Amino acid sequence: MSEYKLTPQSEDFNEWFNTLVQRADLADYGPVRGTMIIKPYGWALWENIQQGLDKRFKATGHVNAGFPMFIPKSFLEKEAKHVEGFSPELAVVTIGGGEELAEPIVVRPTSETLAGHAYANWIKSYRDLPVLINQWNSVVRWELRTKLFLRTAEFWWQEGHTAHATYEEAETETRQMLDVYHDFAVNEAAVPVIRGRKSNIERFAGADQTYTIEAMMKDRKALQAGTSHNLGQNFARAFDIQYLDRNNELQHCWTTSWGFSTRFIGGMVMTHGDDKGLVLPPRLAPFQVVIVPIYKNDDEKSQVMPVVQRIQAELVAADVRVKVDNREDLTPGFKFNDWELRGVPVRMEIGPKDVSKGTVALARRDMPGKEGKSFVSQAGLTSQVQTLLKTIQANLLETATQFRDAHIQDARNYDEFKQIIAAGEWGDCWWAGSDADEKRIKEETGATTRCFPLAQPEGTSQCMLTAQTANEVVLFAKAY
Amino acid sequence: MSEYKLTPQSEDFNEWFNTLVQRADLADYGPVRGTMIIKPYGWALWENIQQGLDKRFKATGHVNAGFPMFIPKSFLEKEAKHVEGFSPELAVVTIGGGEELAEPIVVRPTSETLAGHAYANWIKSYRDLPVLINQWNSVVRWELRTKLFLRTAEFWWQEGHTAHATYEEAETETRQMLDVYHDFAVNEAAVPVIRGRKSNIERFAGADQTYTIEAMMKDRKALQAGTSHNLGQNFARAFDIQYLDRNNELQHCWTTSWGFSTRFIGGMVMTHGDDKGLVLPPRLAPFQVVIVPIYKNDDEKSQVMPVVQRIQAELVAADVRVKVDNREDLTPGFKFNDWELRGVPVRMEIGPKDVSKGTVALARRDMPGKEGKSFVSQAGLTSQVQTLLKTIQANLLETATQFRDAHIQDARNYDEFKQIIAAGEWGDCWWAGSDADEKRIKEETGATTRCFPLAQPEGTSQCMLTAQTANEVVLFAKAY
């Protein structure tokens, strides 16, 4: 388990990540190339993410449903840009029940076409609108180069699919869900994402407008952490999603879709993790507190364990997610390393001295060493732990925000820009370039536009590339 | 919506079911033949089922994980009976990312082989045991004749996969999970299932022993509602799942698997439903109470709605799942029918007279007409509603149990048996027949053994077919 020493981030960030997610029992490879098994510890994290998002979806009026994983291949072809975007990544079923199928079936890479088909059947009049449906599932996109959580042939996510009577309602929905993702990422995961609009080139295949939340990893590469698409009437026209309006006239709907996936787990690992392992935000950590009992013999054990059990019960009663590590054949030191690797926010040590003094030792995962260690009274312990968890949560967000802001640089011209990108930073620049300019920059520097941030400076300025008047600022970065 | 009249159960049970599940917005067909869309109302029911089961799984020490949907075809072939059982139903992916695959991939029909492969990697020593993992997913079994919820090409379920050091532990786990299913079905769904052991013929492909819960539908056909398998060392040997025991000797593990699917939703529909539609058990119903406000004009509406909103808030605060039907362009009568179709346990009507008298009208879904209607005070309403929901839950279970017991008949010989089966009843009989005898009975009568109930009478008696001494009683029935 944790006797293995991780490669330091500074030495090989990629190696650090790949080793960590397996060593910390988040995930493993499946037998089919590029597939992933999310192990129980990783899945518990995903369940907490699901809960945090699902309650926000329901609070904004959405309901869940279950759509099939199979799509007739012909469906994808109904929306021209959509099929162009997804064709290279499809897994195709050609045999069913021992027989060659008349029409090949695709395993869903995303479900806009299924929703389009169903909504065309379900929606009759303006009274049926809006339709606000989400689903939790897994999707398949065949990938040649794979990386656990970040790029696998199958991944888990949620995909929302909504239909509306007007463009304005669809746009409001698209932006609302972006805000939901932002709120979740910042306040639950302590990942300070930046909200923005994607460029033409980076837009979802079939969308009129794509919004994104972009996160900065500790290697300063960008991670697209969630997207929300205004699909205009593209899918409504392709699938005949129509409704009778109040004047009894037939109109096409306006649709949206939005998704947030297990890739975000990779994003959390790379936002908060350090050379000792994971650092999980308290609000999402499967275990918020691990108690390590310390004793040398049965006599000490019989003093320590009743206190451990009492404190455990008090924490459970206060809804603190607590784990007691009572493994018999491992040293406390081994256990400390093991739980550091797994990123548990607070470690509580209880030994015979603590029992006699009525104290415990608390160690913060986000602050290794003496600085993060405190000795506190068992009286009022639960509320102290709750306060500490909030402090850690806030500290993770502040640290990540400072890190992010320290690595976004203003680029006033292309020379400056190239230096910034070459140094691994993000470039913040006024932009009036064309799609072709954007592609050229990608070829020359490896950086892509991450987004036009929703928070824009006032006024206009010179485009960093073309020196034309630019109305907007864009963020460029190398990205996962 | 509900203006459509259902075919009565007595006229055509099959037609009643097929129409109802679509009309009540539980499910619809997907575009690929045999696939199902579970609509939001049906999915909300499934989410409540998931919660009820998941908390029981966690309380018995299980954790969730996510396994891939793809299995190398060769994996299935490692366990001889398993491949024989599942081969005819497979969906096979032969193309990935535009290229023909070197080895075909199967979309999981069940995941024993994936668990086997992973556990062989993960388990090293007795310290790693038991492994107690569950997953919520969907699986694919190609079906020629499909029926929503009961038999579709894809369905949702949970599948537990556990590994143990001894046969006894595996058997204890298998039986424990059967008891979990039984407890859930009886106490949450009011479906009085019978626990028992499957015959050799009806056993899961690859299991040493299969246990089942069997339910009786209102057409008296049996529905296998959940199964729990002791897999012995079959998969451990096929996949080399081995551990070092305390003496440092290598041993094969003993494994189990157990599953419970969306087919159970069909079972609930056919256990409780009537000619007016669904009858949902309060503990699982997406809405436990629907409030229909009654008014003829704006003046009455302004009197009624504040009371409706106050009562809604009180019920929500007490965790009662309540829906206010404030649709403007529909009559109360239409709404009554609509919610009866959808099986909401309690309808609350509030009109101007109720406002002035401080009362509401309550109507029980399980007791249509005047008998189920009461007029109660708004004072203490929440606790009255909670009591009523418990009464309805208990009444559904009692009614279904009485129905079940009234339709299980003792068959002392084959002539009696044939009459019982021809009359559509279940035959309860002493049995010492062979596998061949069982097959012959299926051919001659259409009935199969459902299970050897765990609750057995004392002693021995004559086998109903062979007249040999039989040690056990078996249940025969026609089944879905």
Number of domains of chain A: 3
Structural class of chain A: alpha+beta
The CATH superfamily of the largest domain in chain A turns out to be Bira Bifunctional Protein, Domain 2
Can you tell me the CATH architecture of the largest domain in chain A?
Answer: 2-Layer Sandwich
CATH fold-type name of the largest domain in chain A: BirA Bifunctional Protein, domain 2
This entry's quaternary arrangement is homodimer
Which value, in Å, is the CA radius of gyration of chain A? 25 Å
Percent of sequence in beta strands of chain A = 25-35%
Bin the helical content of chain A.
25-40%
What is the residue-mean pLDDT of chain A, rounded to a whole number? 96
Span of the ends, CA to CA of chain A: 28 Å
Q: Tell me about the biggest sheet of chain A? A: 11 strands, mixed
Strand order of the largest sheet of chain A: 3-7-8-14-11-10-9-22-25-21-20
Number of helices of chain A: 14
Shape of chain A: globular
Please give the number of β-strands of chain A: 25
Low-pLDDT residue intervals, each spanning 5 or more residues of chain A: none
Most extensive chain interface and residues per partner: A-B, 58 and 60 residues
CATH class of the largest domain in chain A: Alpha Beta
